[in-house]
Design brief:
Pfam families: Beta_helix_3. This is Carbohydrate-binding domain-containing protein. The chain crosses the membrane at residues 482-502. This protein is mainly β and 507 residues long. It has a 9-stranded parallel sheet, with no helix packed on it. An 8-stranded parallel sheet has the order 2-4-7-10-13-16-19-22, with no helix packed on it. Strands 6-9-12-15-18-21-24 form a 7-stranded parallel sheet, with no helix packed on it. Strand 26 and strand 27 form a beta hairpin. It starts with a helix and ends with a helix. 35% of the residues are buried.
Protein backbone atom coordinates (compact mmCIF):
# COMPACT_ATOMS: atom_id res chain seq x y z
CA UNK A 1 0.00 0.00 0.00
CA UNK A 2 1.32 3.42 -0.90
CA UNK A 3 0.81 6.51 1.23
CA UNK A 4 0.50 9.91 -0.35
CA UNK A 5 2.44 12.95 0.75
CA UNK A 6 -0.64 14.63 2.28
CA UNK A 7 -1.18 11.64 4.60
CA UNK A 8 2.48 11.65 5.72
CA UNK A 9 2.35 15.37 6.46
CA UNK A 10 -0.81 14.97 8.47
CA UNK A 11 0.75 12.17 10.52
CA UNK A 12 3.81 14.30 11.29
CA UNK A 13 1.63 17.20 12.39
CA UNK A 14 -0.38 14.94 14.66
CA UNK A 15 2.80 13.56 16.25
CA UNK A 16 4.11 17.06 16.85
CA UNK A 17 0.91 18.07 18.55
CA UNK A 18 1.22 15.11 20.92
CA UNK A 19 4.72 16.18 22.11
CA UNK A 20 4.81 18.01 25.46
CA UNK A 21 5.35 21.74 25.07
CA UNK A 22 8.57 23.24 26.51
CA UNK A 23 7.49 25.67 29.20
CA UNK A 24 8.63 29.24 28.70
CA UNK A 25 11.07 30.56 31.27
CA UNK A 26 9.13 32.24 34.03
CA UNK A 27 9.67 35.95 34.42
CA UNK A 28 10.92 37.04 37.84
CA UNK A 29 8.23 38.24 40.20
CA UNK A 30 8.74 41.91 41.05
CA UNK A 31 7.84 43.45 44.41
CA UNK A 32 7.86 47.12 45.36
CA UNK A 33 8.62 47.82 49.00
CA UNK A 34 6.74 51.07 48.73
CA UNK A 35 3.60 48.93 48.53
CA UNK A 36 4.34 47.01 51.74
CA UNK A 37 6.31 44.15 53.28
CA UNK A 38 7.59 41.34 51.04
CA UNK A 39 7.13 37.68 52.00
CA UNK A 40 8.59 34.99 49.73
CA UNK A 41 7.08 31.59 50.32
CA UNK A 42 7.67 29.77 47.03
CA UNK A 43 10.74 28.76 45.08
CA UNK A 44 11.57 31.13 42.25
CA UNK A 45 13.21 34.33 41.09
CA UNK A 46 12.27 37.70 42.49
CA UNK A 47 13.14 41.36 42.06
CA UNK A 48 12.63 43.81 44.91
CA UNK A 49 12.70 47.55 44.41
CA UNK A 50 11.08 50.71 45.77
CA UNK A 51 9.87 54.03 44.45
CA UNK A 52 12.65 56.24 45.85
CA UNK A 53 15.90 54.47 46.76
CA UNK A 54 17.15 57.62 48.47
CA UNK A 55 14.37 57.61 51.05
CA UNK A 56 14.48 54.79 53.65
CA UNK A 57 11.36 52.71 54.24
CA UNK A 58 10.42 50.72 57.34
CA UNK A 59 9.41 47.58 55.47
CA UNK A 60 10.68 44.01 55.74
CA UNK A 61 11.75 41.20 53.42
CA UNK A 62 11.22 37.64 54.67
CA UNK A 63 12.05 34.32 53.02
CA UNK A 64 10.10 31.44 54.48
CA UNK A 65 11.74 28.19 55.62
CA UNK A 66 13.04 25.73 53.05
CA UNK A 67 12.45 28.06 50.08
CA UNK A 68 15.04 28.19 47.30
CA UNK A 69 15.01 31.72 45.93
CA UNK A 70 17.10 34.08 43.85
CA UNK A 71 16.31 37.62 44.95
CA UNK A 72 17.61 40.67 43.12
CA UNK A 73 17.83 43.84 45.19
CA UNK A 74 17.50 46.86 42.94
CA UNK A 75 17.79 50.06 44.94
CA UNK A 76 16.38 48.79 48.25
CA UNK A 77 16.72 51.12 51.24
CA UNK A 78 15.34 49.72 54.51
CA UNK A 79 16.19 51.34 57.83
CA UNK A 80 14.53 50.84 61.19
CA UNK A 81 14.74 53.12 64.19
CA UNK A 82 17.12 52.20 67.01
CA UNK A 83 14.12 51.54 69.22
CA UNK A 84 12.55 48.96 66.87
CA UNK A 85 14.25 46.18 68.81
CA UNK A 86 13.11 43.16 66.84
CA UNK A 87 12.53 44.65 63.40
CA UNK A 88 14.62 42.85 60.74
CA UNK A 89 15.23 44.40 57.34
CA UNK A 90 15.90 41.07 55.52
CA UNK A 91 15.27 37.76 57.25
CA UNK A 92 15.63 34.14 56.19
CA UNK A 93 13.46 32.06 58.50
CA UNK A 94 15.47 30.35 61.25
CA UNK A 95 17.04 26.96 60.44
CA UNK A 96 15.81 27.04 56.84
CA UNK A 97 17.20 24.37 54.55
CA UNK A 98 16.56 26.50 51.50
CA UNK A 99 19.30 28.08 49.42
CA UNK A 100 18.93 31.84 49.00
CA UNK A 101 20.94 33.90 46.54
CA UNK A 102 20.90 37.69 46.86
CA UNK A 103 21.86 39.47 43.65
CA UNK A 104 22.87 43.13 43.88
CA UNK A 105 21.64 44.75 40.69
CA UNK A 106 24.40 46.46 38.75
CA UNK A 107 24.80 50.13 39.55
CA UNK A 108 22.41 50.04 42.52
CA UNK A 109 23.06 50.85 46.17
CA UNK A 110 21.15 48.79 48.73
CA UNK A 111 20.83 49.30 52.50
CA UNK A 112 19.56 46.84 55.10
CA UNK A 113 19.57 48.39 58.59
CA UNK A 114 17.66 46.48 61.26
CA UNK A 115 16.67 47.20 64.85
CA UNK A 116 19.03 46.30 67.73
CA UNK A 117 18.19 42.62 68.20
CA UNK A 118 18.28 41.61 64.53
CA UNK A 119 21.00 41.35 61.91
CA UNK A 120 20.85 43.60 58.86
CA UNK A 121 20.73 40.53 56.58
CA UNK A 122 19.79 37.74 58.96
CA UNK A 123 20.46 34.01 58.66
CA UNK A 124 20.03 32.06 61.91
CA UNK A 125 20.81 28.37 62.16
CA UNK A 126 23.92 26.21 62.39
CA UNK A 127 22.63 22.68 61.94
CA UNK A 128 24.11 20.26 59.44
CA UNK A 129 21.19 20.65 57.05
CA UNK A 130 20.76 24.41 56.99
CA UNK A 131 20.76 26.04 53.59
CA UNK A 132 23.09 28.62 52.13
CA UNK A 133 23.10 32.38 51.73
CA UNK A 134 25.07 33.58 48.71
CA UNK A 135 25.61 37.25 47.87
CA UNK A 136 26.68 38.25 44.37
CA UNK A 137 26.12 40.85 41.64
CA UNK A 138 27.72 44.13 40.65
CA UNK A 139 25.85 46.48 42.96
CA UNK A 140 26.55 47.45 46.56
CA UNK A 141 25.12 46.45 49.93
CA UNK A 142 25.38 48.01 53.38
CA UNK A 143 24.11 45.82 56.23
CA UNK A 144 24.02 46.72 59.92
CA UNK A 145 21.85 47.42 62.96
CA UNK A 146 20.77 50.85 64.13
CA UNK A 147 21.72 50.93 67.79
CA UNK A 148 25.15 51.12 69.47
CA UNK A 149 23.85 48.73 72.12
CA UNK A 150 22.80 46.12 69.61
CA UNK A 151 24.04 42.54 69.87
CA UNK A 152 23.67 41.31 66.29
CA UNK A 153 25.80 40.87 63.19
CA UNK A 154 25.71 43.00 60.10
CA UNK A 155 25.30 39.87 57.96
CA UNK A 156 24.68 36.64 59.86
CA UNK A 157 22.86 35.85 63.09
CA UNK A 158 20.96 37.87 65.64
CA UNK A 159 21.63 37.99 69.38
CA UNK A 160 22.01 34.52 71.01
CA UNK A 161 21.98 32.77 67.61
CA UNK A 162 24.55 31.03 65.44
CA UNK A 163 24.98 31.09 61.68
CA UNK A 164 26.38 28.84 58.99
CA UNK A 165 26.99 28.70 55.22
CA UNK A 166 27.37 32.34 54.15
CA UNK A 167 29.26 33.00 50.92
CA UNK A 168 30.28 36.28 49.28
CA UNK A 169 30.87 35.80 45.56
CA UNK A 170 30.83 39.38 44.29
CA UNK A 171 29.59 42.90 44.89
CA UNK A 172 30.66 45.78 47.09
CA UNK A 173 29.77 44.65 50.58
CA UNK A 174 29.98 46.68 53.78
CA UNK A 175 28.90 44.94 56.97
CA UNK A 176 29.02 46.48 60.44
CA UNK A 177 28.23 44.46 63.56
CA UNK A 178 27.38 46.10 66.85
CA UNK A 179 28.81 43.64 69.39
CA UNK A 180 28.07 41.04 66.78
CA UNK A 181 30.47 40.24 63.95
CA UNK A 182 30.50 42.26 60.77
CA UNK A 183 29.87 38.97 58.97
CA UNK A 184 29.21 36.02 61.28
CA UNK A 185 27.68 35.41 64.69
CA UNK A 186 25.55 37.56 66.95
CA UNK A 187 26.46 38.09 70.59
CA UNK A 188 26.06 35.38 73.22
CA UNK A 189 24.25 37.74 75.55
CA UNK A 190 22.12 35.45 77.70
CA UNK A 191 23.50 33.22 80.42
CA UNK A 192 24.11 29.75 79.01
CA UNK A 193 23.87 30.81 75.37
CA UNK A 194 26.56 29.95 72.83
CA UNK A 195 26.99 31.41 69.35
CA UNK A 196 29.12 30.17 66.48
CA UNK A 197 29.89 31.13 62.89
CA UNK A 198 30.98 28.32 60.59
CA UNK A 199 31.68 28.03 56.88
CA UNK A 200 31.87 31.76 56.23
CA UNK A 201 33.40 32.12 52.76
CA UNK A 202 34.74 35.10 50.83
CA UNK A 203 35.34 34.04 47.24
CA UNK A 204 35.30 37.43 45.55
CA UNK A 205 34.01 40.96 45.58
CA UNK A 206 34.97 43.90 47.73
CA UNK A 207 34.30 43.32 51.41
CA UNK A 208 34.64 45.95 54.14
CA UNK A 209 33.85 44.73 57.65
CA UNK A 210 33.96 46.11 61.15
CA UNK A 211 32.46 45.47 64.58
CA UNK A 212 32.17 47.12 67.96
CA UNK A 213 32.78 45.66 71.41
CA UNK A 214 34.66 42.38 71.56
CA UNK A 215 33.30 41.16 68.23
CA UNK A 216 35.42 40.37 65.17
CA UNK A 217 35.10 41.73 61.67
CA UNK A 218 34.47 38.22 60.31
CA UNK A 219 33.67 35.31 62.63
CA UNK A 220 32.68 35.43 66.29
CA UNK A 221 30.95 38.01 68.46
CA UNK A 222 31.06 39.52 71.94
CA UNK A 223 30.21 36.76 74.45
CA UNK A 224 28.72 38.81 77.34
CA UNK A 225 27.03 36.25 79.65
CA UNK A 226 27.27 33.32 77.26
CA UNK A 227 30.12 31.60 75.45
CA UNK A 228 31.55 31.40 71.96
CA UNK A 229 31.51 28.33 69.77
CA UNK A 230 33.30 27.23 66.64
CA UNK A 231 34.42 29.68 63.99
CA UNK A 232 35.58 28.82 60.48
CA UNK A 233 36.40 31.45 57.88
CA UNK A 234 37.65 30.75 54.36
CA UNK A 235 39.04 33.41 52.01
CA UNK A 236 39.75 32.32 48.46
CA UNK A 237 39.48 35.64 46.64
CA UNK A 238 38.29 39.21 46.72
CA UNK A 239 39.53 42.29 48.52
CA UNK A 240 38.83 42.15 52.27
CA UNK A 241 39.46 45.00 54.69
CA UNK A 242 38.73 44.53 58.39
CA UNK A 243 38.87 47.49 60.76
CA UNK A 244 37.49 45.78 63.87
CA UNK A 245 39.28 45.80 67.20
CA UNK A 246 39.75 42.03 67.35
CA UNK A 247 40.42 41.18 63.72
CA UNK A 248 39.24 38.03 61.97
CA UNK A 249 38.34 34.93 63.97
CA UNK A 250 36.80 34.99 67.44
CA UNK A 251 37.61 36.68 70.74
CA UNK A 252 37.58 33.39 72.67
CA UNK A 253 36.90 30.65 70.16
CA UNK A 254 36.46 27.00 71.03
CA UNK A 255 37.51 25.69 67.64
CA UNK A 256 38.92 28.47 65.45
CA UNK A 257 39.84 27.86 61.84
CA UNK A 258 40.98 30.50 59.37
CA UNK A 259 41.98 29.39 55.88
CA UNK A 260 43.37 31.81 53.28
CA UNK A 261 44.19 30.53 49.81
CA UNK A 262 43.71 33.70 47.77
CA UNK A 263 42.53 37.27 47.70
CA UNK A 264 43.94 40.29 49.47
CA UNK A 265 43.20 40.42 53.20
CA UNK A 266 44.01 43.48 55.28
CA UNK A 267 43.11 43.31 58.95
CA UNK A 268 44.05 46.06 61.37
CA UNK A 269 44.13 43.64 64.31
CA UNK A 270 45.21 40.55 62.40
CA UNK A 271 43.84 37.12 63.24
CA UNK A 272 42.87 35.43 66.49
CA UNK A 273 44.50 32.20 65.33
CA UNK A 274 47.24 31.33 62.84
CA UNK A 275 45.83 31.22 59.29
CA UNK A 276 46.63 28.16 57.20
CA UNK A 277 46.37 27.08 53.58
CA UNK A 278 43.78 24.42 54.32
CA UNK A 279 46.36 21.64 54.40
CA UNK A 280 47.77 22.44 57.79
CA UNK A 281 50.54 24.73 56.52
CA UNK A 282 50.78 28.13 58.17
CA UNK A 283 50.50 31.13 55.86
CA UNK A 284 52.08 34.53 56.41
CA UNK A 285 51.51 38.02 55.08
CA UNK A 286 53.39 38.93 51.91
CA UNK A 287 52.74 42.63 51.30
CA UNK A 288 53.47 43.70 47.73
CA UNK A 289 53.37 47.28 46.48
CA UNK A 290 51.41 47.75 43.26
CA UNK A 291 50.80 51.46 42.80
CA UNK A 292 49.67 51.24 39.18
CA UNK A 293 47.36 48.24 39.67
CA UNK A 294 49.44 46.12 37.29
CA UNK A 295 48.81 42.42 36.64
CA UNK A 296 50.25 40.09 39.30
CA UNK A 297 51.46 36.52 39.09
CA UNK A 298 52.46 34.54 42.18
CA UNK A 299 54.70 31.54 41.56
CA UNK A 300 53.65 31.58 37.92
CA UNK A 301 49.88 31.77 38.55
CA UNK A 302 47.74 34.83 37.84
CA UNK A 303 46.61 36.48 41.08
CA UNK A 304 43.56 38.60 41.90
CA UNK A 305 42.94 41.14 43.18
CA UNK A 306 46.06 43.07 42.26
CA UNK A 307 45.92 45.35 45.33
CA UNK A 308 43.74 46.55 48.21
CA UNK A 309 42.44 49.73 46.61
CA UNK A 310 38.90 48.40 46.10
CA UNK A 311 38.08 47.87 49.79
CA UNK A 312 40.62 50.34 51.19
CA UNK A 313 40.78 53.33 48.80
CA UNK A 314 44.28 54.68 48.36
CA UNK A 315 45.99 51.51 49.58
CA UNK A 316 47.78 50.11 46.53
CA UNK A 317 49.46 47.19 48.30
CA UNK A 318 48.48 43.56 47.82
CA UNK A 319 48.07 41.61 51.07
CA UNK A 320 48.62 37.98 50.09
CA UNK A 321 49.00 35.11 52.54
CA UNK A 322 51.44 32.42 51.46
CA UNK A 323 53.43 29.58 52.97
CA UNK A 324 56.73 30.22 54.76
CA UNK A 325 59.18 29.73 51.90
CA UNK A 326 60.58 31.70 48.97
CA UNK A 327 58.05 32.91 46.40
CA UNK A 328 58.44 34.53 42.99
CA UNK A 329 56.14 37.48 42.36
CA UNK A 330 55.77 39.33 39.08
CA UNK A 331 54.10 42.74 39.18
CA UNK A 332 53.69 44.11 35.69
CA UNK A 333 57.08 43.45 34.10
CA UNK A 334 59.14 43.30 37.30
CA UNK A 335 59.91 39.90 38.79
CA UNK A 336 61.04 39.69 42.43
CA UNK A 337 62.02 36.75 44.59
CA UNK A 338 60.70 37.13 48.14
CA UNK A 339 62.65 35.27 50.82
CA UNK A 340 61.09 34.07 54.07
CA UNK A 341 62.79 34.28 57.44
CA UNK A 342 61.41 34.14 60.96
CA UNK A 343 57.79 34.87 60.08
CA UNK A 344 58.25 37.61 57.50
CA UNK A 345 59.31 38.20 53.90
CA UNK A 346 62.05 40.39 52.44
CA UNK A 347 62.61 41.25 48.79
CA UNK A 348 65.53 39.55 47.07
CA UNK A 349 66.71 39.53 43.47
CA UNK A 350 64.63 41.59 41.06
CA UNK A 351 64.59 42.15 37.30
CA UNK A 352 62.44 44.13 34.86
CA UNK A 353 61.74 43.32 31.22
CA UNK A 354 59.28 45.50 29.30
CA UNK A 355 57.55 44.74 25.99
CA UNK A 356 57.11 47.51 23.43
CA UNK A 357 55.25 47.23 20.13
CA UNK A 358 54.80 50.90 19.27
CA UNK A 359 57.40 53.42 18.11
CA UNK A 360 59.29 55.51 20.61
CA UNK A 361 58.13 59.08 21.20
CA UNK A 362 60.81 61.70 21.70
CA UNK A 363 61.79 65.31 22.30
CA UNK A 364 65.18 67.01 22.27
CA UNK A 365 66.19 65.57 25.67
CA UNK A 366 64.85 62.02 25.87
CA UNK A 367 62.53 59.35 24.47
CA UNK A 368 59.73 57.27 26.01
CA UNK A 369 57.39 54.38 25.32
CA UNK A 370 54.47 52.58 27.01
CA UNK A 371 54.91 48.92 27.88
CA UNK A 372 52.28 46.65 26.31
CA UNK A 373 52.34 44.27 29.26
CA UNK A 374 52.24 46.52 32.32
CA UNK A 375 51.33 49.98 31.03
CA UNK A 376 54.40 51.61 32.54
CA UNK A 377 55.81 54.64 30.75
CA UNK A 378 59.54 54.09 30.36
CA UNK A 379 61.65 57.22 29.73
CA UNK A 380 65.35 57.34 28.85
CA UNK A 381 67.90 59.95 27.83
CA UNK A 382 69.03 59.79 24.22
CA UNK A 383 72.15 57.79 23.38
CA UNK A 384 73.49 60.07 20.64
CA UNK A 385 76.10 59.18 18.04
CA UNK A 386 77.73 61.57 15.53
CA UNK A 387 76.98 61.53 11.79
CA UNK A 388 78.12 63.75 8.85
CA UNK A 389 78.27 64.22 5.11
CA UNK A 390 80.37 66.58 2.95
CA UNK A 391 78.45 69.70 3.93
CA UNK A 392 77.07 69.25 7.46
CA UNK A 393 77.01 67.22 10.68
CA UNK A 394 74.30 66.02 13.15
CA UNK A 395 73.61 63.49 15.95
CA UNK A 396 71.20 60.54 15.97
CA UNK A 397 69.81 58.48 18.92
CA UNK A 398 70.57 54.83 18.24
CA UNK A 399 67.48 53.72 20.25
CA UNK A 400 64.63 55.86 18.95
CA UNK A 401 66.05 57.44 15.77
CA UNK A 402 65.72 61.04 16.96
CA UNK A 403 68.11 63.31 15.00
CA UNK A 404 69.34 66.83 15.71
CA UNK A 405 69.12 69.50 13.01
CA UNK A 406 72.10 69.42 10.56
CA UNK A 407 74.69 72.17 11.04
CA UNK A 408 77.21 73.29 8.39
CA UNK A 409 80.85 72.36 8.87
CA UNK A 410 83.25 75.00 10.23
CA UNK A 411 86.50 74.18 8.41
CA UNK A 412 90.03 75.04 9.58
CA UNK A 413 93.35 74.20 7.92
CA UNK A 414 95.35 71.47 9.64
CA UNK A 415 99.00 70.83 8.61
CA UNK A 416 99.72 67.13 8.37
CA UNK A 417 103.41 67.51 7.36
CA UNK A 418 105.47 70.68 7.10
CA UNK A 419 107.21 71.40 3.78
CA UNK A 420 111.03 71.51 3.75
CA UNK A 421 113.48 73.10 1.36
CA UNK A 422 113.64 69.90 -0.64
CA UNK A 423 110.35 68.10 0.11
CA UNK A 424 106.70 69.11 -0.25
CA UNK A 425 104.38 68.92 2.78
CA UNK A 426 100.62 68.32 3.08
CA UNK A 427 97.59 69.88 4.74
CA UNK A 428 93.80 69.36 4.88
CA UNK A 429 90.63 71.18 5.92
CA UNK A 430 88.93 69.78 9.04
CA UNK A 431 85.60 70.66 10.78
CA UNK A 432 86.35 72.00 14.24
CA UNK A 433 82.97 70.73 15.55
CA UNK A 434 82.76 67.15 14.31
CA UNK A 435 86.23 66.29 12.97
CA UNK A 436 85.13 65.61 9.37
CA UNK A 437 88.25 66.08 7.12
CA UNK A 438 88.62 66.87 3.43
CA UNK A 439 91.26 65.26 1.21
CA UNK A 440 94.80 66.48 1.90
CA UNK A 441 96.55 68.90 -0.51
CA UNK A 442 100.29 69.50 -1.13
CA UNK A 443 102.42 72.24 0.39
CA UNK A 444 105.30 73.01 -2.11
CA UNK A 445 108.95 72.65 -1.06
CA UNK A 446 110.49 75.91 0.12
CA UNK A 447 113.76 75.70 -2.05
CA UNK A 448 117.58 74.98 -1.35
CA UNK A 449 120.96 76.79 -0.55
CA UNK A 450 124.13 74.93 -1.86
CA UNK A 451 127.51 74.98 -0.06
CA UNK A 452 130.27 76.95 -2.18
CA UNK A 453 133.31 75.47 -0.41
CA UNK A 454 133.83 72.84 -3.11
CA UNK A 455 133.78 75.32 -6.05
CA UNK A 456 137.20 74.70 -7.80
CA UNK A 457 136.99 77.89 -9.88
CA UNK A 458 136.77 80.06 -6.77
CA UNK A 459 133.67 81.83 -8.19
CA UNK A 460 130.61 82.51 -6.05
CA UNK A 461 127.31 80.94 -7.04
CA UNK A 462 124.01 82.75 -6.39
CA UNK A 463 121.09 80.80 -4.95
CA UNK A 464 117.90 80.16 -6.83
CA UNK A 465 115.50 83.06 -6.66
CA UNK A 466 111.78 82.76 -6.01
CA UNK A 467 111.03 84.90 -9.06
CA UNK A 468 108.46 83.38 -11.33
CA UNK A 469 107.67 83.98 -14.96
CA UNK A 470 104.64 82.32 -16.47
CA UNK A 471 104.48 80.14 -13.38
CA UNK A 472 108.05 78.81 -13.78
CA UNK A 473 110.98 79.59 -11.52
CA UNK A 474 113.76 81.59 -13.22
CA UNK A 475 117.28 80.24 -12.39
CA UNK A 476 120.00 82.67 -11.28
CA UNK A 477 123.58 82.30 -12.70
CA UNK A 478 127.26 83.26 -11.86
CA UNK A 479 128.74 82.49 -15.36
CA UNK A 480 131.25 85.50 -16.22
CA UNK A 481 131.13 84.93 -19.99
CA UNK A 482 127.43 85.32 -19.94
CA UNK A 483 127.83 88.60 -18.04
CA UNK A 484 130.39 89.96 -20.59
CA UNK A 485 128.13 88.98 -23.46
CA UNK A 486 125.26 90.75 -21.86
CA UNK A 487 127.35 93.91 -21.37
CA UNK A 488 128.49 93.85 -25.01
CA UNK A 489 124.95 93.53 -26.22
CA UNK A 490 123.95 96.46 -24.07
CA UNK A 491 126.86 98.61 -25.40
CA UNK A 492 125.99 97.71 -28.96
CA UNK A 493 122.45 98.77 -28.42
CA UNK A 494 123.61 102.16 -27.15
CA UNK A 495 125.94 102.75 -30.15
CA UNK A 496 123.23 101.83 -32.63
CA UNK A 497 120.79 104.14 -30.92
CA UNK A 498 123.36 106.98 -30.97
CA UNK A 499 124.17 106.47 -34.65
CA UNK A 500 120.54 106.56 -35.56
CA UNK A 501 120.11 109.83 -33.71
CA UNK A 502 123.11 111.52 -35.51
CA UNK A 503 121.88 110.36 -38.88
CA UNK A 504 118.49 112.01 -38.37
CA UNK A 505 120.16 115.22 -37.19
CA UNK A 506 122.42 115.50 -40.33
CA UNK A 507 119.36 115.42 -42.50
Amino acid sequence: MKFGKPLIAASALAAALLLPATPAAAEPVTYNLSDGNVVISQNGEYVITQDDPNTPVTKTIEVKADVDATITLSGVNIEFDENDWHACAFKIEDNSTGDVTVVLAEGTANRLVSGPNAAGLQKNGAGENVGTLTITGNGSLYASTNNPSSFSAGIGSSVNNSTRNITIENGNIEAFGRRGAGIGAGSAYTQGSMTSATNIRINGGTVLVSASGLACGIGGADRFHGSLGAVSVFVTGGSVTDSSRYGIGSFRPVDPRIVITGGSVKSAAGFTTQPTDGEGNAVYLLKIDNQNSQPVTLDGESYLPVNQNASSPGDTSLYAYVTGESHVVKVGCTTTTWNFDNGSFTAGASSTEHTFSSAWQSNSANHWNICDACGDTVSEEHSLSAHHDETSHWQTCETCGYATDPEPHSFEWVVDREATATEAGSKHEECAACGYAKKAVEIPATGTTEDSSDNSTGSTQNPSTPNKENGKALPATSDSSAAIAAAAIAMGSILIAGGYALNRKSR
